[in-house]
Amino acid sequence: MRLPHILKILGLGAVLMLASGCWYHTHYAHGPAPVRSNVVYIRKAPPPPRHYSRPPRPTASAIWISGYWNWTGVEFAWVSGHWERHPPRNKRWRDGRWVHTARGWYWVPGGWY
Asked: From what superkingdom does this record's organism come (predicted)?
């Protein structure tokens, strides 16, 4: 296999890993319009977060990444939370959240800060 092909596969695997998993958090906020130019506004509010138990922590250093409702362009689809087994050092995970403005709802993705 060539290196670029392997990197594409690893990148896709990382995206799929981040898109799996779940827990309950309130992913809603009110606020000003985002500065980003690629924001998609949705008129319909996202459903309430799903409530269920986390699986056991796989390692002492694992960090829980909460699940969330993703907008597919047609409907909301639940993306389950998961344990991040190798979190970056000296960083904290901030969950993504839905923000409501006069133009509608938009998603602010989670990330390491």
From this structure: Bacteria
Contact partners, residue 48, CB within 8 Å, separation at least 6: none
Q: What are the residue boundaries of the structural domains of the chain, listed by start? A: 3-112
**pTM for the predicted model, two decimal places:** 0.65
Residue range 68-90: average pLDDT? 95
H or E element in which residue 7 lies:
helix 3-18
Amino acid at 110: G
3-class DSSP assignment, residue 107: strand
Q: Give every CB contact of residue 56 below 8 A, 6+ residues apart in sequence.
A: none
Q: Are 93 and 65 in contact (CB under 8 A)?
A: yes
CA angle 105/13/9 to nearest 5° reads 125
Secondary structure of 43-99 in HEC code, one letter for each residue: CCCCCCCCCCCCCCCCCCCCEEECCEEEECCCCEEEECCEEECCCCCCCCEECCEEE
